[in-house]
Design goal:
Two copies of one chain form a homodimer. Chain A is α/β, with parallel strands linked by helices. Chain A folds into two domains: 3-121, 3-Layer(aba) Sandwich (Rossmann fold), CATH 3.40.50.720; 129-216, Alpha-Beta Plaits (2-Layer Sandwich). Helix content of chain A is 31%, strand content 28%. The first copy, chain A, is built from seven helices and eleven strands. In chain A, the strands form two sheets. In chain A, strands 3-2-1-4-5-6 form a six-stranded parallel sheet, sandwiched between helices. The first copy, chain A, has a five-stranded antiparallel sheet with strand order 7-8-11-9-10. In chain A, a hairpin with a 2-residue loop joins strand 9 and strand 10. Chain A is elongated and about 65 Å long. The first copy, chain A, starts with a strand and ends with a helix. The interface between A and B is large, with 59 and 62 residues. The structure holds adenosine-5'-triphosphate (ATP) (2 copies).
């Protein structure tokens, strides 16, 4: 159980704050916007309205006791940088901040942020790579040509076994292997070749990009 | 080689447009903001300044010939929805749009968007899950409490076998299973319990979040 402070409760910050709270951590969520703070009532430990560029406000909230601070302010680059510097000054051991572009990211790293994320750029890259594999829901790169994809079972495989559908055994990296099969909340790891696919099933597959891409090709 | 139109060249749209162009596709990138359009000169096929809520503008640009259209307008929900509806009306075969929240996502799906993404929320969830697994490089959710993580081998496991390190067999979802082991560009799927870990190895593991989190705990 860790103490995490999240500043900026826009689309990114509210989701980080909520998820961390669900994972069991103590979450202090700060925003200048009263409505956004209200929206998180019951969904984080401590939703607080405040201006995070004000060092007194941060100290009164006990920020110096926190394990991790996340700066999720987006568009307002000046505020984003100021708050990051304040967290560094106050001495928070691990600081995550978001950046809008490479120069901004560079600046945050020089300030001493431990992790800098560019959420939209990461999503944009991911979307571009998954766009022409329509059933693809998620992609995790292993090498530039080989990755793990989470895909919805294509219609034409419904009611066929994994083997009949052309999937290879889990150790074969020259075909497309199914690492996991998800049916609702139920997960089977390294499913058997004789397992039969149902409509709505989600598969986690691994293989060379072109081969995985062909799964959805009709 | 596909024809892709991207509307909205903010942080998400500019990255999608650039990446698709690098992947070899024909990219039409539209924004009302002249500067953002200029910034993409040479980085996409056809950067154009225009108001995408104007059907004539879209038709003059030949949008009806496109394979895919991506609505990357964010904050302006009204414009985002209007452009999505226009693309549907014009008959683009595959439409991706972004949403700011669940209700917005629901609306876009009802309009007929083929794929709806919430980039910040996805990044937020991912960040929350990876925050306390410092070696975590990537996370793919399977259920809210169970996911696949790509992690750098923790120092204390170097030179130990997978079995000695406490990893379970690939079918056991009550422990943490290693789905793949990457050493440089070399990938072993479902590695053997007797395989020995080396410094710099990257593992793809699956298991309940708390158990995976403990891997990095010292
Ligand atoms: N000084 C500040 N103190 C506290 N909160 C702040 C401060 N400055 C900005 N914020 C908050 O940060 C939040 C996120 O910033 P903003 O909306 O500008 O970025 P965004 O990129 O649109 O965010 P997202 O993409 O996560 O929705 C806003 O809700 C805003 O009220
Ligand atoms: N009707 C329109 N026609 C063309 N472009 C538009 C239109 N409306 C908005 N845009 C553009 O969409 C882009 C992205 O929208 P906006 O900046 O509001 O969202 P955002 O959520 O901050 O984006 P991001 O997170 O990707 O940076 C802006 O550059 C804006 O000029």
């Amino acid at each position: 159980k860790k103490l995490v402070a999240v500043v900026g409760l826009g689309r990114l910050g509210s989701e980080v704050a909520r998820t961390l709270y669900q994972l069991g951590h103590d979450v202090l969520a700060i925003d200048q916007d009263e409505q956004l703070v209200q929206d998180l009532t019951g969904e984080v430990t401590h939703p607080v309205r405040g201006d995070a560029t004000n060092e007194n406000v941060l100290r009164e909230l006990g920020i110096h006791n926190y394990d991790v601070a996340i700066v999720a302010i987006g568009t307002n680059v000046q505020a984003n940088i100021m708050v990051s510097v304040l967290f560094k000054t106050i001495g928070i051991p691990y600081i995550v901040s978001r950046a809008n572009n490479e120069l901004h990211a560079n600046t945050l790293e020089r300030i001493g942020c431990n992790k800098v994320i560019q959420p939209e750029a990461e999503s944009g890259t991911r979307l571009a790579h998954m766009l022409f594999t329509p059933e693809a829901q998620e992609y995790m790169e292993l090498t530039s040509a080989f990755g793990i994809s989470r895909i919805r079972v294509p219609d034409r495989f419904v009611n066929m076994t994994l083997k009949e559908s052309g999937f290879t055994g889990v150790r074969d990296k020259y075909g497309v292997a199914v690492l996991a099969l998800k049916r609702g909340d139920d997960i089977t790891l390294s499913p058997d070749g004789e397992d039969r696919l149902a409509n709505g099933d989600v598969m986690v597959v691994v293989g060379r990009d072109e081969l995985v891409g062909r799964i959805s090709a009709t």
